[in-house]
Write a structure and sequence with these properties.
alpha/beta, five-stranded parallel β-sheet, globular
Length: about 170
Amino acid sequence: MENIKIPKSNNKRALILVDIQKGFLKKWEKPLISNLKKLLAQELYDLYVEVTFHAEKGSLWDKQTNWTFPYEPTVPEVLDLLKGKNVIKIIKETRSAFKGNVNLFSVLQKNKIKEVHVVGMDSSDCVFATAQEAFDLGFYTYVIEECTGASQGEKIHKNAIAILRCLGLTNHT
């Protein structure tokens, strides 16, 4: 079993798991969960951040895009992988994990985290926004390509990864 490429570092690190919910996974479920298992067997993190999304009727999502997404928990297979780990749970109604019901920036600072790895759904949306904001807030930031996907399809995913690579924000840049 080949390891997932992870930048070498002595920094305290957090893994941010974004929107790994049934409604987003579609065809990505099997490879994403398989690669997450591999990553979590290979790497230890100082903090794990489990992030879930919802957009209710009457939300800005509904008003502007005519789209809603009722609350769903993180899929059980991922929750099983996080058992016994130092996990912070965040629920959000927007793209970035930094805009949820917990002040993620403060939590990362309190835990002396200097580097974040971002995984989950969607590489073109919430993963992208979380990575951009993490970098803007001063964290070394890497989207772990093998552990992301886009519910909008492979082409959107590849384009998002290409942009993130160009920005130096993946484990393959």
